[in-house]
Design brief:
Pfam families: Radical_SAM, TRAM_2, UPF0004. The chain is 36% helix and 21% strand. It contains 14 helices and 18 strands. The protein folds into three domains: 3-123, 3-Layer(aba) Sandwich (Rossmann fold), CATH 3.40.50; 126-364, tm_1862 like domain (pyruvate-formate lyase- activating enzyme); 370-444, Nucleic acid-binding proteins (OB fold (Dihydrolipoamide Acetyltransferase, E2P)).
Length: 459
């Protein structure tokens, strides 16, 4: 009888890919069936995150929930995988004796052995990967670990130094994803722009992207997690000239004050960041820039915070995420102490409010403009609409576009933005329908009700 397996995946897209590899290996045995209810499951797998305190707490909560299910049915097996275990191996083994097996991030190839207690060999586990995102998009993790040594970051403690995957392997995986119907490829790593730096190749990322551009079936390539001082002129030129690499870049700045940047261990200055943004916008017209900032780093005083706030108001990023500094043991910044939680919270709220109004301003400028949209699926919030995205929107990170009509997931539709659904989300209708509507208006000589819908979506 097949084992029923429930899988909980926490954390970032890099961790999600690990989950997909685990699921693919288990599925390839033919001995399991996957279920969504923990009570039904014979085996519960939690792929944990251990990056910052809130993520660690969420992981522990999920593990304890699984253990409670095991108490109800002692035959259940609980498996803990991922970053939390990688970071606190001995502590978790000691504190959680109810867990049946632990799986480190470097043990994914042994998933079947650890989880099903049987031997299973796979020369190339990534070829068996089960895509768990919508079938038209997938992540391609190009490297493991990081060697940037940012003072606040626990990733090197968890996943080790940078280790780039071979280009041939990545192209092979991309081709398989394309054969499965993937149209939009998200290139991810802790620092994608450092690809092949561990092999002393400074333009390795550009070399890889040129290979990925040639993969048939892939329509959009989206670049995530690029490190500011690793963005080269050749990469900018490639994005500008490419027909597949979308005009979008995720470039976490983390702060803008020089003193704070230096204490964070970031290898650039405010002047460099400003020149980079200017260069990106000048050489790639229409580019959407996403960034992230850490609020409340120990060396951030009122002056430094005001500089950051003013910078955000002036630059008007297309997308920005804000995170409160989390003091993590083992990092270089740990010795710097911490700021009061209420101070960090108030600063976070102010930046989010400022960015909220920037979104409204920028999105009002998009009304009347046409875009190619990729459809993600039917909208539950707005009947008669599907949820879609333009090149400006990354899946599950940025806002969405409600597209009027009925279209299949993965379909690419030409559309025009007609209104705002909220500060972050837009409403659009297919250009073909809009043209037909214009014809009808001309014949009748009366305005046509386009069914404008105003929605509300939390930011």
């Amino acid at each position: 009888m097949k084992k029923k397996v429930a899988v909980i995946s926490l954390g970032c897209p890099k961790n999600w890919v690990d989950t997909e590899n685990i699921v693919g290996l288990l599925k390839s045995t033919g001995d399991v069936v996957f279920v969504g209810d923990l009570k039904e499951a014979d085996i519960i797998i939690i792929n944990t995150c251990g990056f910052i305190q809130p993520a660690k707490e969420e992981s522990i909560d999920e593990i304890l929930t699984a253990i409670e299910e095991k108490k109800e049915d002692p035959e259940k097996r609980v498996i803990v995988a991922g970053c939390l275990y990688q970071r606190y191996k001995e502590e978790l083994k000691k504190e959680l004796p109810e867990v049946d097996a632990f799986l480190g991030i470097d043990e994914i190839e042994r998933s079947v052995e650890k989880i099903l207690n049987r031997k299973f060999a796979a020369a190339k586990p990534y070829l068996l990967r089960e895509v768990l995102t919508p079938k038209h998009l997938a992540y391609l993790k190009i490297s493991e670990g990081c060697s940037n040594a940012c003072a606040y970051c626990a990733i090197p403690l968890i996943r080790g130094p940078l280790r780039s995957r071979p280009i041939e392997e990545l192209v092979e995986e991309a081709k398989i994803l394309a054969d499965k119907g993937v149209k939009e490829l998200y290139v991810i790593a802790q620092d994608t722009t450092a690809y092949l730096h561990d092999r002393n190749e400074r333009e390795g990322f550009v070399k890889l992207l040129k290979k990925l551009e040639k993969v048939e079936g892939i329509r959009w390539i989206r670049l995530m997690y690029t490190y500011p001082s690793h963005i080269t002129d050749s990469l900018i030129d490639l994005i500008a000239d490419s027909e597949k690499i979308v005009k979008y870049i995720d470039v976490p700045l983390q702060h803008i004050n020089d003193k704070v940047l230096a204490s964070m261990g970031r290898k650039y200055t405010r002047r460099y960041a400003e020149e980079l943004i200017e260069k990106l916008r000048k050489r790639i017209p229409g580019i959407a820039i996403r960034t992230t900032f850490i609020v409340g780093f120990p060396t951030e005083g009122e002056k430094e915070f005001e500089e950051l706030h003013s910078f955000i108001k002036d630059v008007e990023f297309d997308w920005a995420g804000f995170f409160k500094y989390s003091r993590e043991e083992g990092t270089a910044a740990y010795r710097l102490g911490d700021l009061p939680e209420e101070l960090k919270e108030s600063r976070l709220n102010l930046l989010e409010e400022t960015q909220f109004w920037i979104y409204e301003k920028k999105h009002r400028e998009l009304v009347g403009k046409g875009f190619e949209l990729i459809v993600d699926g039917k909208s539950e919030e707005m009947p008669g609409f599907v949820e879609a995205r333009s090149y400006r929107n990354a899946y599950e990170i940025d806002g969405i576009i409600y597209l009027k009509g009925h279209f299949r997931p993965g379909e690419i539709v030409k559309a025009v933005v007609t209104d705002l659904a909220s500060n972050v989300d837009l409403i659009a209708e297919p250009i073909g329908d809009r043209d037909k509507a214009s014809e009808r208006r001309g014949k009748r000589g009366t305005p046509e009700d386009r069914g404008r819908v105003n929605g509300e979506r939390a930011v």
